[in-house]
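Quick start: what a row looks like.
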Amino acid sequence: MKIFLLAALLSPAFGAVAADTPRVLLGSEVLAEGGFRDLAGRRVGLITNPSGVNRRLESTIEVLRRAPGVKLVALFGPEHGIYGDVPAGDKVESRTDVRTGLPVHSLYGATRKPTAAMLQGLDVLVYDLQDTGARSYTFISTLGLAMEACAEAGVEFMVLDRPNPLGGNRIEGPRLLDERLRSFVSQWDVPYVYGMTSGELARMINGRGWIRKPCKLTVIPLRGWRRDMLWRETGLPWVPASPHIPHGESPLFQVATGMLGEIGGVSIGVGYTLPFQTVAVPKVDPHALAADLNARGIAGVHFRPLTYKPYYGAFKDEVIGGVQLHFTDPAGAPLTAINYHALEALRKVAGRDLFAEAVNAGKKFDMFDKVNGTAATREALQAGRPVAAIIAGWRGGEEAFRRERKPYLLY
């Protein structure tokens, strides 16, 4: 494994930072400052989507196309496609990109791992996707499977590193505890919130043997990023990583309610103007639900009562009520736990047992269990085990992972 560091970073002469210097430089920007020398004269494939932009909102596709000495010859599309125009879960088709004339190989269609034919003729496959910091977000599954394919094909793999929008200190939730639940939304043995950048996680995937054969890995690191930074502190623009992650704080909300949405019977704001920012159902007193959740003393979040009418989804054109989440201390809020507190509050205040309702409707819980990495969480919730006890059960795995990740951290 090779870590690309500019000589300037190592020289005392460059210790002073000009007032107009960006607070955080992306891996793609560090690569450009170095004259693209790690890609010079090489045939390059690129895994990216609309989130792969620099601070001037220039696409990495265009940056590499005009980079001196770089031969960008193929594009690879993860979930949602290279232009982010494919809905969640829908297959991405392989095709020729009309804008660039380059082949676009789908990594979310017939295969989710690059084939030998896709990699043929490449010297290096570059990864530039903005992750959200949650295990269930499929880009990190694409990351590791592409690394494995490159190892098998003898192609170098390069990560242009990006900040984790949840910061680098937050570790929360269950690890992948049941091998039968390993899937594209739970591919790696990390907690639900793992507190690493994509480059760091790539190093861990390689170093711990989570893929069949380690690849030749290069990480182009960030400059100026600290582990305690949330996205708003990076000074970087946010481009939606997928349709329901529209702004830099969206990953906070995705973690806080995304698991809840996998059960059904509740709106989490998808289908309205507040994706992942609400917990709402028909025929509930929003003020009573807000009062219950606020009385729980969950750090860093306030629940405001609201009503709204979704534009699409299970409650299309129906007035529903509940709460909107407002993070008062985003860094200190226990995001994953909010899903389970909301379940408990809905049962108590609204008399709504979402699991029982789903069972009566013949719904299965495959996706909820896969996202959790274990069926034990669901079984405990169904049995009425207190949320506090479930959360406490994560601590051993969280602390073990905090130790295990140390050798792979870059910042």
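That is the whole record. Residues 230 and 337 are 19 Å apart (CA to CA). The chain is about 30% helix and 15% strand.
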